[in-house]
Amino acid sequence: MMWQDATVTYPQGFQAYAAAAGLIVGRLDMACLWSVVPAVFSGLFTTNQAAAAPITVTKQVAAKGWCQAIIINAGNANAVTGQGGLQDAYTMQQYMADHLGVASEQVAVASTGVIGVPLPMDQVQQGMSQLVDAWQQQHSDGVKASEAILTTDREPKTLACDVTLSSGVVRIGMMAKGSGMIHPQMATMLAFFTTDAAIEKSILDELMRQAVSRSFLRVSVDGDPSTNDMAVILANGQSGVHVGTPEDIEQFGKALAHLARQGARMIAHDGEGATRLITVRVRGAATEEDAALKARTAVRSNLVKAAVYGGDPNWGRVIASVGSVGLPFDLSAVSLWIGTVLVLEGGLPVPMAEDQAHNELEADEVVMDVLIGNGPGFAEAWGCDLTEQYVEINAHYRT
Amino acid sequence: MMWQDATVTYPQGFQAYAAAAGLIVGRLDMACLWSVVPAVFSGLFTTNQAAAAPITVTKQVAAKGWCQAIIINAGNANAVTGQGGLQDAYTMQQYMADHLGVASEQVAVASTGVIGVPLPMDQVQQGMSQLVDAWQQQHSDGVKASEAILTTDREPKTLACDVTLSSGVVRIGMMAKGSGMIHPQMATMLAFFTTDAAIEKSILDELMRQAVSRSFLRVSVDGDPSTNDMAVILANGQSGVHVGTPEDIEQFGKALAHLARQGARMIAHDGEGATRLITVRVRGAATEEDAALKARTAVRSNLVKAAVYGGDPNWGRVIASVGSVGLPFDLSAVSLWIGTVLVLEGGLPVPMAEDQAHNELEADEVVMDVLIGNGPGFAEAWGCDLTEQYVEINAHYRT
To answer: Reaction catalysed (chains A, B) (predicted)?
Structure first.
């Protein structure tokens, strides 16, 4: 696998367009992702009971299994908007289908932004019209598209890679947005993967499920699962390389998982107001699920997050949060490292370790390793520190 | 039931002493609660796997069922301190037993403060010696004791009441501390109830369980269940009034539950950095448990908390958090009131309601009522807004 500083347009046969519809003033705020042929489509969606209208629409597309275009807007989530909102999402789907000349059931819709405000369809129409123009003129720009899907994110999140399979090289690309209301169940607001591999839907579904469960489902910026989360992949086969043998499947799955993991880390790192990425790894749990629950609980702890922000190696908060959930463990078997510094060994504080640990909290990424026993369960989770800026952003998001 | 602006010493036969041991510089930081006779003792304790040493000791006392004294310190939690910490807790228990002339198995221990630092036993010894002196001189002062158990709390939390039973009046008193690391599973750090009623342990256990489950277990300041939480009650029978008839039990249980509920509200209101109390009530759920889960999730949502702080009636965040957990519901049956203003009716935003709702967020207590269906399940939960001060307090708690 070779990393590429590229985006969703890196795999063959994918294009991406951006538009400024005025949903977010002075910025690109709509995008269209396009495959030159219908692509195998797989996705994971929020489990929130208040799932947004575009989730309903795009789940239907995923159920059918093919997608050629995704229409995306930022600035308005089209969530908790009732039947009218659902109608708006279908209108977006239909408009793009009509103008791009594809079946509407192969057009997915994604939205992110404020909840409970009807989509300003005049502006959305303008944006869609710009996107269709750009498509007609082939003004594909993956970087601009990755900017157009952001809300409070500070920077676009894209990455791509080459994967060498038995019969040739395939490419996978990704763009994502995150920032606020980020928490497992799905985690990121929006993540779009593209690949030019040829792959069966059932295999893609399973690889995607695995990749997402160990990446986006392990991110927490603020513990709030969004109404609009989705992570989807389009596989258009344009490389002519088939993901065929078990080794190919393993190889492709690994690459997809790596890409998803990097995407998850980017989202955590760019959490609202964050200054540091926090990685918590739990080892020695009875099961991976238990390790994941404990790791996620630690990274979502406001107290842990605030301590990291303050540069305070207050490991007691890590132990308290790990101890608050999941299967029982023996505290006298618990050890904790902050970075490379062992601060708790077998349930006992290591003398003088805190001074050293202090320096580890200066790093851009703070890694905490928790050993809780001798079970086989391992999991990592990602979060970010809690700052005054997080409060400011979310106290006045709409004002 | 008649409310009294009083504390744990209001019921007959209870005394409380305070000392300044230097655990928190320049403040009272140790207390002793004393009953003139051994009292029936009941309690609920943190379920955190990393439960502190005093929890271990006091659970043993609760298992035996009788308690005459509780020794309490603030400033150090004696948690994650290994065998040495457990020994320190037993030393506190034994010292007080020896000097107050009671069996050590009838002395409970409670601690609150920083995790993972050995108790400075020299200072603790000084504090205990002051407490014994005060006890010998009968310098009981319930108000000072309620101050001595605080950490980052801004004010003491006490309340008492009279309860008229079939054969006379009994009294119940309470002091509590909360503030940080406050979340169900147990909720408050420390809550002490006293009553001069005569009551059987099995009945007291059940009434206490009910009272706590609908009060302290429904508070969330920051979602972090502490290692040291406990809520205990001493019933010393000094009123001579027996909680005998089913009506008496109901009456006494109601009073205890009311008192616990008020204590829970005080703790939420005085959350670290908080400017407002947030009450979320969920109705129409299938079960009380589901309603409680949804209400608790809403009050612990950083996004809801930040919106309340910012005076932003961003009800979408409330719906998103309620929708993220528990049993499914039909969004088109969901209505939401902020204060008295209906902002969402049958899954649809009420036009212009937000401007009115804005004013409701100026209040000292912000109440949000969520109707999610026509089930019998009802529950309320309490939290507080998220402010820059919360971050400041917890980023630099020890520095």
So the answer is: L-glutamate + acetyl-CoA = N-acetyl-L-glutamate + CoA + H(+); N(2)-acetyl-L-ornithine + L-glutamate = N-acetyl-L-glutamate + L-ornithine
Closest residue by Cα to residue B217 from B269, B293, B135: B293
Q: Please give the Cα distance from A152 to A384 (Å, whole number).
A: 15
Tokens of A388: 């005054």
- Model pLDDT for residues A303-353, shown as the tens digit of each residue: 899 999 999 888 888 998 899 889 999 999 999 999 999 999 999 989 888
Q: How far does chain B reach from its first CA to its final CA, in angstroms?
A: 45
Dihedral sign of CA atoms B111, B117, B118, B122 in order: negative
Q: Other C-beta atoms within 10 Å of A173: how many?
A: 28
Residue A175, φ and ψ in degrees, nearest 5: -135, 145
More confident residue, A399 or A215: A215
Cα–chain center distance at B118: 25
Residues contacting B192, CB < 8 A, separation 6+: B8, B33, B70, B72, B110, B149, B174, B175, B176, B231, B232, B233, B234
Query: In the annotation, is B81 catalytic?
Result: no
Amino acid at the residue A324:
S
Spatial separation of the C-alpha atoms in residues A93 and A91, rounded to whole Å: 5
Q: Is the pLDDT of residue A216 over 60?
A: yes
Residues of B in contact with A390 (CB under 8 A): 302, 306, 391
Contact residues for A369 (Cβ-Cβ < 8 A; gap 6+) = A281, A283, A336, A337
Distance CA A176, CA A8 (A): 10
Query: Is there a contact between A107 and A67 (Cβ–Cβ < 8 Å)?
Result: yes
Mean pLDDT for chain B?
92
Nearest CB among B48, B311, B398 relative to A323 is that of B48
B289 burial (CB, 10 Å; 0-12 / 13-18 / 19+) is middle
**By CA distance, what is B386's nearest residue in A?**
A391
To the nearest whole Å, the CA of B28 is away from the closest chain A CA by 24
pLDDT digits (tens, 9 = 90+) for A365-387: 999 999 999 999 999 999 999 99
Is-contact B95 B128, C-beta < 8 A? Answer: yes
> With bands split at pLDDT 50, 70 and 90, how would you rate the model's confidence at B46?
confident
Identify the active-site residue in B9, B158, B188, B279: B188
Give the mean model confidence (pLDDT) for residues B379-383.
Answer: 94
- CA nearest neighbour of B41 among B66, B13, B63: B66
Contacts of A358 in chain B (CB under 8 A): none
Chain A CA closest to residue B394: A306
